[in-house]
Amino acid sequence: MNDTRPLILWFRRDLRLDDHPMLHAAGLTGRALVPVFIADETVLTLGAAARWRMGEGVAAFARRLTGQGSRLILRRGKALDTLMSLVAEVGAGGLWWSRLYDPASRTRDAQIKETLRNQGIEARSFQGHTLAEPWDVQTGAGAAFKVYTPFFKALDNSGVPPPMPAPQRMMAPPVWPGSEDLAGWRLGAAMNRGAPVLARHAQVGEGAALARLDRFLVTAVETYRTDRDFPAKPAVSGLSENLSLGEIGPRRLWHSACAIESADPGHPGALHFRKELAWRDFAHHLMFHTPHILTDNWRPEWDNFPWLDDGPQAERWRRGMTGERLVDAGLRQMYVTGTMHNRARMIVASYLCKHLMIHWKTGMNWFADCLTDWDPASNAMGWQWVAGSGPDAAPYFRVFNPATQAEKFDSAGTYRRNFIAEGQTRPTADALAYFDAVPRAWGLDAGQRYPAPLVDLAEGRARALAAYGARIRTEGTSNS
To answer: Is the pLDDT at 354 greater than 60, yes or no?
Structure first.
């Protein structure tokens, strides 16, 4: 069918031009393209930092489209109603979007696709948020994977398609539909005084993401495998916030690493970088096939584990006042920058779930509120991996000791000093920024005494191992 009516392109977490299968295909049609972003319930219910970062990303993408002679139409409301109204307004013949794999998005998108097709409007979805579709990577028996290593091998062997170039031209419609004012949405309102602090660290938009990739390939990928666990070293790409909103495509990253391996077979940094990208895909694979990972223990045998509820100790943890400097540095880094070093995430999570015995959902929800690189699949899988209740989980006896972890990965104390102001005569700007960002109601001050530890590390570890060991024994008895 040679349909010449305009196409509506619905952007969600794919705020880029490069490596964009939907946009590449749309550009080849020669039809007028109407890009739209909708602030529906999936946007308006994001955590405070993620919602602020979404607003910044949408603004940057709108500017990028303007540079292409196009524009981004902004609408707010229920996605189905908003899109149906827009289809009628512009006389569109089709609506295209890039797929997302969380349950809420899948349910919404299926309803939209059915409604449009019933009315004779083309509804088409594309891959683009992951390296591969969750259903395309299968075991030899045609099932979903539950363990990461064979998943990576299958993904690697399947051959990730190369990234597609940005469209040369985006045809404009004869008349542009009206657009709402992004500032009026107040997506950053919940951040209050913390927004300017986050803004100093965010690198927003496709241009910043591509520049970030270039810097990583030149300066850090060589030592990525050996240095990535040291939080004070500039050894990681920092691209998680851009990947979360699709400001850079995962296939662009994968093939950038492949190019290095092609020139230097077995390059450890490039290979390990690809493994981390595959770990992200594995999280989305699990979320698609076992969506309860977002809300419940992935392993149901953990449902009776004696997690402690939220309470004063969890609140001390949230505020970065546990008395364990490496734990508190990680939590404060997240509050100041919107991200947290991966090694710190594991230590922070282990401390909450094991030393304090507090439910992993408490930590997962706090991360969802504070991370600018929040991703539903990665956040849930990461927390369940540390807690032991998830797939491919850390063994129950792995309890990250913040003191020994600090000796090994922050022996000079640089990372801790970067984010802990108390006790320093000349605290760093980021350490002081924490007190500028936190709610005034917390009553925190850089000049206060640093708190004593919440728990003795040896006692906390022993309590966790006793509880975990009891669960293992109970499970063995119930299965006998």
So the answer is: yes
Q: Does domain 1-128 have CATH number 3.40.50.620?
A: yes
Q: Which helix H or strand E contains 95, and what residues bound it?
A: strand 94-98
Residue 164 has a pLDDT of: 94
Strand partners, 95: 8, 123
Look up tokens 């602090």; give the residue.
197
Structural tokens at position 289: 């096939």
User: What one-character-per-residue DSSP string does 307-364 give?
Assistant: PBPSSHHHHHHHTT-SS-HHHHHHHHHHHHHS---HHHHHHHHHIIIIIS-B-HHHHH
pLDDT tens for residues 310-322?
999 999 999 999 9
Q: CATH classification of 130-162+198-289 is 1.25.40.80, yes or no?
A: yes
Determine what percent of the chain falls in helix, strand and coil, rounding each to the nearest 5.
Answer: 55, 5, 40
> Does position 458 have pLDDT exceeding 60, yes or no?
yes
Residues 386 and 349 sit within 8 Å (Cβ to Cβ): yes
Quick check: pTM over 0.70? yes
Q: Which of 156, 403, 131, 350 is nearest to 252 (CA)?
A: 131
Calpha distance 37→187 (Å, rounded):
13
**Distance between CA atoms of 355 and 436, rounded to whole angstroms?**
29
What is residue 480's predicted lDDT score, i.e. its pLDDT?
A: 43
DSSP conformation class of 189 = G
Distance of CA 78 to the CA centre of its chain: 24
CATH class, domain 300-474, is mainly alpha
* HEC letters along 390-408: CCCCCCCCCCCCHHHHHHH
pLDDT at position 479 over 80: no
Q: Which two tokens stand for residue 174?
A: 């004869």
| Residue pLDDT, tens place only, 374-388 | 999 999 999 999 999
Domain extents for the chain? 1-128, 130-162+198-289, 300-474
Rounded Cα distance, 294 and 388, in Å: 15
Contact 297, 389 (CB under 8 A): yes
pLDDT one-digit tens code per residue, 200-247: 999 999 999 999 999 999 999 999 999 999 999 999 999 999 999 999
Query: From the CB of residue 168, how many other CB atoms can be counted at a distance below 10 Å?
Result: 8
3-state secondary structure of 190: helix
Question: In terms of Cα–Cα distance, which of 217, 203, 277, 205 is closest to 247?
Answer: 205
Residue 464 has pLDDT above 70, yes or no: yes
Strands 94-98 and 122-126: parallel
Q: What pLDDT digit, counting tens, does each position of 9-20 carry?
A: 999 999 999 999
In whole angstroms, give the CA distance from residue 280 to residue 274.
Answer: 10
CA-to-CA separations, 213 to 102, 217, 218, 237, 242, in angstroms, rounded: 27, 6, 9, 7, 10
